[in-house]
Amino acid sequence: MAKAQRRYVCQSCGSVSHRWQGQCADCSEWNTLVEEAAAVVTPFQAKHNLQSGGRSLTLVKLDAEIALPERMTFGIAELDRALGGGLVAGSATLIGGDPGVGKSTLLLQAAARLARSGRSVAYVSGEEAADQVRLRAQRLGLGDAPVQLAAATSTRDILTTLQGDPPALLVIDSIQTMHSDLIEGAPGTVSQVRATAQELIRFAKERGTAVVLVGHVTKDGSIAGPRVLEHMVDTVLSFEGERSHQYRILRAIKNRFGGTDEIGVFAMAGEGLVEVANPSSLFLTQRDESVTGSIVFPALEGTRPVLVEIQALVVRLASGATPRRAVVGWDSGRLAMILAVLEARCGLSFSTCEVYLNVAGGYRVQDPAADLAVAAALISALSERPVASDGIAFGEIALSGEIRPVAHAPLRLKEAGKLGFTRAMVPSGVAEAASIQLASFRNLGRFVDHMLGRG
């Protein structure tokens, strides 16, 4: 351990001496030198002091007249929407999804669109050979696109190849297969993924290349690898979908250049992923007649309203049996809260009933405005009174039974009106819509009375 150095400071002029003496050598005052403890300076501290020895940075004002980075649009409206208007030059984007959901297909289609517009695009695959990528491109009708392909896993080889002529877009499929010779360990380890992503992001910032990284996901659906990887990139996209359904949802989780929670909707077809201009048509069934336990909810994803059908089934059990609660597409804890409020505030009994809740089409709802629609479906299923087929419902339910207003109510009503819905059960205070008849409610008790026809 380093030994603390002694120093003597003159209380009159502040002069510092390394030994005590009766008279200060600078101001000639007597008996003013007092011993003080000096800071311990070790060789490590002297070598690693970051307050000096660096290069001076150029600070720019916020209102400086500097050309901002341009956006590159792919011509795929759903992808550009999820990105907030397109890719920004020099940005890093991470896209994750389950195996086989269509990540590579979507990126190959986007790369081909961008290459056909005249920009240079490089596609590096660490999981497939270049010929395999070309076969998939021919199957999708993209064989003539001027995309530069390579099959490599060495980060040093990739950056050395692109150093002289950096492309406008670089796709890495996937980041878990890349390897850096500066770090020991197999590809896919935490240290390798972090080091490789850092080198690729540095290349993107220095050369103005937009880098898109494909990431694997874990069993629970989160992106595999270190959590810091999501903080390093500028945009994080999640590609969701199930094999049993043809639709795919591209959801923006993080975006430094646009709004979050934006979605793009695609449908898997023989020629690849096809844009869906009207996502509500995917999640709504033919509603020719009213059915108990079914109601339409206008969910809001970013700036886009999506109409989904919420279905509920209530089965009465014999006394003594344990009731079951099953939820698909919604939060099970939220369902338990709605059931508790209906029992405590409205006198409806679900304790002897099995409750099943489903969001049609495999869609997952995260909007808190779905509380009122779920309550309507549960009340309809319990009382066996159908809801009007041309009606919707939205609103947030508090534990006190109050029905609270939600954001963007006019946008939800406008989308419902375009699809032919004429009635809406909403919280009080919602402005009147031109083509939709509103039924406003302040608390859940009055809503239950309306659903059961009690005035």
What does this structure look like?
Residues 354-455 are annotated as: Lon-protease-like. Residues 68-217 form the RecA family profile domain. Pfam families: AAA_25, ChlI, Zn_ribbon_LapB. This protein has 455 residues and is of the alpha/beta class. The chain folds into three domains: 6-47, no CATH class; 71-277, Rossmann fold (3-Layer(aba) Sandwich), CATH 3.40.50; 282-451, Ribosomal Protein S5, domain 2, CATH 3.30.230.10. It contains twelve helices and 23 strands. The protein has a nine-stranded mixed sheet. A four-stranded mixed sheet has the order 15-16-18-17. The longest helix is centred in the middle third of the chain and has 18 residues, at 190-207. The protein is extended, with a radius of gyration of 31 Å.
**The level-1 CATH class of the largest domain:** Alpha Beta
- In total, the number of strands is 23
Radius of gyration: 31 Å
What is the CATH superfamily classification of the largest domain? Answer: P-loop containing nucleotide triphosphate hydrolases
What share of the residues lie within helices?
25-40%
Q: What is the global morphology?
A: extended
- The amount of beta strand, in percent, is 25-35%
Low-confidence stretches: none
Mean pLDDT: 87
Q: In the CATH scheme, what's the topology name of the largest domain?
A: Rossmann fold
Give the strand order, joined by hyphens, for the main sheet: 8-7-9-10-6-11-12-13-14
CATH architecture of the largest domain: 3-Layer(aba) Sandwich
* Cα separation of the termini: 84 Å
Q: Provide the number of structural domains.
A: 3
Total helical segments: 12
Largest sheet: 9 strands, mixed
Structural class: alpha/beta
